[in-house]
Each structure stands twice: as C-alpha cells, then as structure tokens.
Amino acid sequence: MKDITVNTKLAAIIGTDIGHSKSPAMMNAAFQKTGLDAYYYAMNIKEEDFGAVVKGISKMNFVGLTLTIPYKIQILPYLDEIDPLAEIIGAVNTIKIVDGKMIGYNTDGAGFVKGLEVDCGIHVPEHTFFVVGAGGVSRAIMTVLASKKPKKIYLANRTVSKAEEICAHLNRTFGEICEPISLDSDLKPYIDQATVLINATNIGMPPYDDQAPIDLGLLHKNLLVADVIYNPRKTLLLKTAESLGCPIVNGQSLLLHQGKIAFHIWTGLEAPGEEMYQAVFG
Ligand code: NAP
After folding, report:
1. Assuming Cys at both sites, which of 105, 173, 238, 257 could form a disulfide with 83, CB separation 3.0 to 4.6 Å?
2. What is the CATH classification number for the domain harbouring 123?
3. Is the residue at 4 inside a domain?
4. What is the extent of the structural domain holding 202?
5. Which tens digits make up the pLDDT trace of 29-51?
6. Probe ligand 1: pick from 21, 93, 141, 228, max atoms within 8 Å of CB?
7. Strand order in the sheet with 248-249
8. Taking the complete model, does pTM exceed 0.70, yes or no?
C-alpha cells in the first residue's frame, strides 16, 4: 500500500455492509495508473452516524464519495448541488467535493448505458428495450435510457405498482416512452418487439442462481441480453441467451463503467479502464 501523507487526496465508499466491495481495488488501480496521490477505501457507517460522518468528510481532504445501500437517497439533504439526471432518478451514488461543497451524481444508469454503447455498439434511439425489475438500479438505468429517446421501453416487475410509478415519472419527464407490465402477464408480445433485454432484478444471483427473471422460452435471436449481475459472471439468463447466439453483457460492464465515470468526475482525467478491470476481474 502506498504511503498516505497530509497531501494525499481521499475518496471512499460508504455503506452499512461493504466488506466485499470491489470499488477500492478498482479505484486504487486507477489512482495508481494515473500517478495521482490519492487513496480510496471502504467505510462501514452506522445509519445513526451517517449525517455526522458526511458533514465531517466535507471539511476533510476528500475529492469524492461513493454511496451504496442504504445511503443513495439519505444523502440528498446534505448536497449543495445535484446533477439533473440524478435529480430525476432521485438517488445519488457519487459525490464530488469541491471547496467543502458536495455535488451529487448518479453513475449507475450512465455506466450501464455507456457499457451498451461502447462495448456492444448500441445506439439507444434505434432500439426497443425490455427491462425486468423496478428497484434502485432499474430506476437509474430506465432514466438514462428514457433520456436518450429509445423507440420504447417495456418495464416488467413482480410488484407492478413500482413499474407504473417509474414509467409515469419518466413519461412526464421525457414523453411517452415507457410502458409498465406485470411480470405475471403474457410477456411474449413485448419481448418479441424488443431488441435489448435487461435483467435488473436479483434473479440469477445466489440464492436465485438456478432461476431466470423471465420464461427463457421467450428469448429470440434478435435480442442483445444484458444482466446487472456479475456474480455469477454468466447467469442462467445469459447462458441461455448465449446458447441461442444472442450477444450478452454481464454486470461487470456496469461496475466498470460507473467507476470510470466517477473517476472522471473526481479527477477530470480519462479513467484507465483496462487497469480497473484487471484489478477486479482479471
Ligand atoms: P432492489 O432495489 O432491491 O430491487 C430488486 C428488484 O428485483 C425489484 O424489482 C424486485 O421486485 C426484484 N426481485 C427481487 N427478488 C425477486 C423475485 N424473487 N422475483 C421477482 N423479482 C424479484 O435492488 P437493486 O439495488 O436495484 O439491485 C438489483 C440488482 O442489481 C442486484 O442483483 C444487485 O446485485 C445488482 N447490482 C449490480 C451492480 C453492478 O455494479 N453490476 C450495482 C448495483 C446493483 P419487487 O419490486 O417486486 O420486489
């Protein structure tokens, strides 16, 4: 580990259960490669201490923070500024600290969509999306997708009221793009129209690793299939899609690209993606 001095800039991920976070390895690889005197670490913070910690950090030698569960919404009252897309999402996972001021961003949706664009050659306006899951990550992905004016986004969720709420919010903001669907309904007509299918649920990771979020018989060759899960690297959904000849992308892409965007926000530098990837998945 490098020496940390009085001049070292700090960054950290804050959550309540982040012992297994891959972000420190990824971000420290980026700082090391770019030669910056900066260090990123992981902090487990109790919910009752969150406000005091955040206020203290704003007075210290920090360039930025990553927020994870449960703090992506709890951080909002402490921000001095918020990026317009993060405001629409209603959650912040990245903070830049400038002269004690905290500016909030959400890099989850932007990172996921960047992965589709640069790694898979997807041009969002040309596609119809079918997204499963309406939790925090889905909301961020849906917002960035809708902001880029795709042909259509179908959003299916077990609790359909959550899909309805996200779609109503995004349709008010960006025009009539999103349509909510119950996961129990006949999904075939919607998936048949889609060219990109995205799993944004927990289905596919343990203890649901023998399950898929949709009937796998509905997959077709014209789909690119993406999953937010990276453990396992290939969920049952991705394995089945790959066997049909569909291009696939797993959650490594989201993790990497959201980290690259955060690094750029903090430093103004282009993030060294290869070193960041190798540090976590190599
Ligand atoms: P969340 O807010 O808790 O949302 C979970 C979603 O999964 C909800 O839509 C939920 O449906 C659905 N779901 C959960 N169990 C289900 C079941 N048994 N059957 C059907 N649907 C079910 O979680 P999140 O923060 O959005 O995270 C979602 C996934 O993203 C997780 O797997 C997480 O590991 C992954 N993730 C990946 C990255 C990355 O860097 N790659 C980053 C963050 C998160 P209901 O609304 O009906 O409950």
Report:
1. 105
2. 3.40.50.720
3. no
4. 109-250
5. 999 999 999 999 999 999 999 99
6. 228
7. 178-182, 152-157, 128-132, 196-199, 224-227, 248-249
8. yes
